[in-house]
Design goal:
Layout: H1 3-29, H2 32-51, H3 59-76, H4 83-89, H5 99-116, H6 121-132, H7 137-144, H8 148-168
Helix pairs in contact: 1-2, 1-3, 2-3, 3-7, 4-5, 6-8, 7-8
């Protein structure tokens, strides 16, 4: 594949997925600037992979896998995950209708983040990929390197744990 064709394909991929990969990184680390850096790293790695002549079969799953690994690498650098910080700063929702709806959405988002932060990583991650990023079970399985059955079970158990947390909190 020639460089111009790779460049055009890469730009199309970037335009299509940059926002969702940023949102995924931001949800994982709760730091806007760090999420921007990690998103940039994901696309640099994607560019390098594409220019090496390797073919990507499922681009969306590929990008999420790189993003997940990039976040894990960042966490290994002794960075802390703080969903509480994101809740304090408010959540940036797309397609805001009006200021009243925006404030309500931010409040609901803050509540959701607080509840979700009580879950173990393995449940929180699959629930976010499923219900925030709207990925299929198959795509999530590819990203977390688990079987589709394991992902389904984690989602089900994570939802049960959320119900229990919500039940305790009234």
């Amino acid at each position: 594949m020639d460089t111009e064709k790779i460049k055009a394909e890469f730009l199309k991929v970037y335009d299509q997925y940059a926002d969702v990969i940023f949102r995924y990184c931001y949800f994982q680390i709760s730091d806007r600037e760090k999420a921007k850096d990690l998103t940039q790293d994901v696309f640099i790695k994607t560019w390098e992979y594409m220019t090496s002549g390797k073919k990507v079969e499922y681009m969306k799953a590929f990008l999420y896998r790189i993003a997940a690994n990039t976040v894990i690498d960042d966490r290994r650098k002794k960075k802390t995950l703080s969903l509480d910080k994101m809740a304090e700063e408010g959540f940036d929702f797309p397609d805001k209708k009006n200021e009243g709806e925006e404030k309500e959405m931010i409040f609901e988002g803050e509540q959701a983040v607080k509840v979700i932060s009580d879950l173990a990583d393995k449940y929180r991650d699959v629930l976010m990929l499923r219900y925030v990023d709207d990925l299929s079970i198959k795509e999530i399985a590819e990203i977390v390197n688990e079987t589709e059955n394991n992902v389904s079970v984690r989602i089900h158990r994570g939802l049960e744990k959320l119900k229990n947390i919500l039940g305790k909190n009234g």
